[in-house]
Amino acid sequence: MQENIQLKLFTVADLKSHFLQNQCVEMLSEKVIVPVRAYATIMNPYVKDDMPVVSAVFVNGEVAAYTYVFPDKLDRPDRLVFWNTVLYVDPKYEGRGYGFVVIGQMVEQYGDDYFDLDAVPASVNNLKYAGLNVEYVDQYILEQKRIDTKTFRGKLACLVDGIKKNLYPYKKRLIALIKKADYKLSYSNYIDDETYRFIVEHSSGDLFLRSQQMLNWILSYPNVQDTPLSNRVVGKCAFASNSPGFRFYAVRVEKNNKTIGLYLFRHMKGEIYLNYLYYDSMFQNEVFMSISEHLLHFNEPRFFTAHKDLYEFVKSTRIFAKNRIYKKSFSYPKSFVYDKTLFIQAGDGDNIT
Fold first, then answer.
1. What is the pTM of this model?
2. First-to-last CA distance in the chain?
């Protein structure tokens, strides 16, 4: 039996019709894109109704593969780019090249403005085939040991860890230092003009600088939805954007009534992910100390950052028992001049939530 294979391109107007106006758009459904991602895309300050944002392959009417993009206005370099944000291929259709097809369709649409960060190996291969250059940047992961206390070995390991903590009270020492630290914190879900000027002033070493509007879009329309009863949520899409706990924080660090640091981090159950960090190097210790205070407070088993100096600082506090370096892919068009001396923030690209 001959298969009916269709390649479809959906625009922002299609998403609006289906998700906002409850109109039927042929083959578009929650199996292709979940509502929270659709809404975030629609509310992006730089989208236009005729802008293609979803490419999907259907086999006999069934979703076989899809990918999304979103526009991102950068203040440095001064240009509008399009980030790939999802690539999915149904396991029973793997090996047919559908992943390459949907990426290829988007690359054809956006050419020299198409970028990707942090793709899985299979996606990286598709991006290479589509003609993009691929480099790798470091991301640092700190995490706790996983100890199974149900086994004898696990109970013994837990006992040894307890003895070590008593002999080397690193946590107590850190808490004592934090109490002495002279900084104040303020929290916000909005980047105002003054805060953005601080970001611009302290981002000269960054490869990308997102616009103030894009940063506020990220804070206002995350691609992840906080769903305390996630087990009750019906998942129609393979990329279900639900989490039993999700919060985004923009934190301003102040000393003597002056801003000395600003960072954005994501708190999900099981991890803290530092998306952006900007700080006055004269006050590095205070800013890093404030981040450590958050890590102690939330007590999650895993922390991600792209900042090596911060990684070394947190590692020295012994909050976490293990550490490793993760290589994150950066795929870009051949026409783009990539200065490898510049820094890529962990929240760049599609790592917005």
1. 0.90
2. 43
The predicted structure's pLDDT at residue 162: 59
167 CB burial (10 A radius; 0-12, 13-18, 19+): exposed
Question: Could you tell me if 127 and 121 are in contact, meaning their C-beta atoms sit under 8 angstroms apart?
Answer: no
Per DSSP, 218 falls in state H
How far apart CA 263 and CA 253 sit, in angstroms, is: 8
143/182 Cα distance (integer angstroms): 28
Cα distances from 58 to residues 20, 126, 236, 307, in angstroms, run 23, 18, 15, 41
Do the beta carbons of residue 246 and residue 266 sit within 8 Å? yes
Q: Which CATH number fits domain 139-332: 3.40.630.30, 2.60.40.3080, 3.30.70.980, 1.20.1250.20?
A: 3.40.630.30
Phi first, then psi, for residue 291 (nearest 5°) are -65, -40
Q: What are the pLDDT digits (tens) for 191-244?
A: 999 999 999 999 999 999 999 999 999 999 988 888 888 777 777 777 777 788
- Fold for the domain defined by 5-135: Aminopeptidase (3.40.630)
* pLDDT at position 89 over 50: yes
The Cα–Cα gap between 333 and 335 comes to 5
State how far Cα 238 lies from the chain centre.
Answer: 18
3-state secondary structure of 292: helix
pLDDT exceeds cutoff 80 at 153: no
Token couple for 73: 């206005």
